Amino acid sequence: MREFGRGVRTLIAGFGWWRRHPGVMAAGLIPAAIVGLALAGALVALGFALPGLLDAVTPFADGWDELWANLLRWLLGIALMGGAIVLAITTFTALTLVVGEPFYDRIWRSVEQDLGGTVPDAPYGIGKSIGDALGLFGKGLLSALCAGLVALVPVVGGITGAVVGALLNGRVIADELSSRGLTARGLDGTRRAALLKANRTRVLGFGVAVHACFLVPGAAIVVMPAAVAGAALLGRHLAGEPTATPATPATPATTIPN
């Protein structure tokens, strides 16, 4: 659990960049707000359409006792909305990173520059960003499906599905957010996967923390810039580079435990 907690604190450290570079971080709110509002509207629309949708896909239950028919549709509704929320969170991360590529590149570079040394310069263009986003969407879809299926289990399904969704989606989110820093260091997908696996508990702690924050209505917009900054710190840790932030007269040093 110690490594999991360090992963959570990595996200908390990412919020420190609001003090260090408020203008750069504030710019990251723009793409997050655009994507967040679009996805929130889609979830609201799904919520309004859900009763009719459930009736349409369960016509066989019309002849059942009302109690059992309502129970079935209630369980299906929980599974569908739970899966949709997990998928929306993953999609939000992927789309926001693509839409806000220039903004989040500045955040990532500010972290690398503040920590000292040369900013990694292996190419990470829009093509790789879109490719990573598509890969994330596929993994997120699988996570949403798994969480939705688990949510169908009577009584405990809702809570268990939420936990499964957080664990699976947290890993996917951490993978996507840290990919920029690792790819910029010339690491291909296989080597990135090996580093993530070797540090799975810390990676999971960071990803689950981001996922939990994104569940709070409206919080994803504010958290996204901090998540990008935190992921830059996580990427440096995975690559075996220092994560201690040099102190300035107005700002104490931020250290991510190794």
Overview of this protein structure:
With 258 residues, the protein is mainly alpha-helical. It is 77% helix and 0% strand. The relative contact order is 0.18.
What structural keywords apply?
mainly alpha; 258 residues
How far is it from the N-terminal to the C-terminal residue, by CA?
14 Å
Number of helices: 11
Strand segment count: 0
Radius of gyration: 20 Å
Helix content: over 70%
Order of helices and strands: HHHHHHHHHHH
Largest sheet: none
Mean pLDDT: 83
Overall form: elongated
Indicate the proportion of strand residues.
Answer: under 5%
Q: What structural class results from the helix and strand content? A: mainly alpha
User: What ranges have pLDDT less than 50 throughout 5 or more consecutive residues?
Assistant: 248-252
